[in-house]
Amino acid sequence: MTVLPTKLDTKGPDYTAHRATALARIAELETEHAKALAGGGEKYVTRHRKRGKLPARERIELLVDPDTPFLELSPLAAWGSDYAVGASLVTGIGVVEGVECLITANDPTVRGGASNPWTLKKALRANEIAFANRLPVISLVESGGADLPSQKEIFIPGGALFRDLTRLSAAGIPTVAVVFGNSTAGGAYVPGMSDHTVMIKERSKVFLGGPPLVKMATGEESDDESLGGAEMHARTSGLADHFAVDEHDAIRQARRIVARLNRRKAHTDPGPAEPPKYDEDELLGIVPGDLKAPFDPLEVIARLVDGSDFDAFKPLYGPSLATGWARLHGYPVGILANAQGVLFSEESQKAAQFIQLANQRDIPLLFLHNTTGYMVGKEYEQGGIIKHGAMMINAVANSKVPHLSVLMGASYGAGHYGMCGRAYDPRFLFAWPSSKSAVMGPQQLAGVLSIVARASAAAKGQPYDDEADAGLRAMVEQQIEAESLPMFLSGRLYDDGVIDPRDTRTVLGMCLSAIHTAPVEGARGGFGVFRM
């Protein structure tokens, strides 16, 4: 039997303490998510509704098929910055007429839907996901363009948005724009560069320069409708492919466009899958509040994979990294999960071989992070930890099968890279509220700075101020702790969202389904030179 057993004591004090910590962190997360859901606040949402307009998320809800989930991406974008949480843009994956699509929607209740630097980063990440997984893109547009005070951070890189639309189209990935209001200046190119464009009577306004700018530039008198209204674009300029009478009609027409795309998934539906043998709610009691304490990742795997069925690979070799094969919502996956945190030479070599096998079999890889990095020390340096760690990173970097990453606990140093952190282009990366990620742990980093400063003072023959050192260490530890927390990192789009651990199986299942819209093909060689 390959069904994983469980040793989790759900009545014990450790489980109870871990669960209480997890619930507290989830409550904090929900508070931050609520800020994104609130948009520009009650005043501006009410004003928006009085104009007969729907909020961004309600537009999405009407667009996607009834009773199907919407996987929102990067909801905490801009957290901790001067801009609103969510960055005035909603992005995610939803099913429209049976077709998985990447959906973006401007939130006009936040500064008129204007784009700030985090809006741009979020939109570009959404386009990456659409391109890698060959997902049609539906843009629900209502934006006044760039947030002008921050134009210096938007103008140059912002051109990539329009580049992406043309490249998606050139790759045969459909793009649809539904214009609910203003789409001005650079924003006019979103409907202009999309394959299909829907505009709404007396609502849509699409022009490179509005009446005031035209007056300033040319002296010409004009009005919104004659310059860029939906009827003009439908009858005269030809920019509008479809003319809708209201928002509901526009969404209906967008759904019909998708229904006629003749889209087929690269892989057939895997069919019904057996749920895990153990309750997903128990995931809350596995990860300790103090990440210095190890936990068994097999307990996590047992609550994620189909039937809790897991075929381990090299279980007795390099045991601080669990590797093996399973299915998740019917899709085959290879799993790498950190057990005790530290990666040694054996774990690194084992991982490289396992990644090669997954590429030979065209099987996606799931990385479950809880690592403090590669082992340091004279014995391990002499044993080749650098070249073995490099071997694992080489394998991850050159693997061609889709990668999914979930940060459960610690994800520090080069271990974050070896386990396919953001810089290594996982198709999707999510974090649990319990996770932390940085160059190293706060205490270690502060200690290293202290040692270096003390050595520098000794070399100069100067006395060392121990009191100042203690203050410096405390300050550095506090800074690194704050900057390693998941909401801070998610605000900078270093993940695709911080999720409730209990939702992990559902989230991964939706991602795997999206991934299989495109062909899944592994590398056949091409891993570069492995130093032996």
TrEMBL record:
Residue span(s) of domain CoA carboxyltransferase C-terminal: 275-517
SUPFAM superfamilies per UniProt: ClpP/crotonase
CoA carboxyltransferase N-terminal domain: residues covered: 22-273
InterPro entries listed in its UniProt record: AcCoA_carboxyl_beta, ClpP/crotonase-like_dom_sf, COA_CT_C, COA_CT_N, MCCB/AccD1-like
Pfam families: Carboxyl_trans (PF01039)
Molecular function GO terms recorded: ligase activity
The protein's name: Acetyl/propionyl CoA carboxylase beta subunit
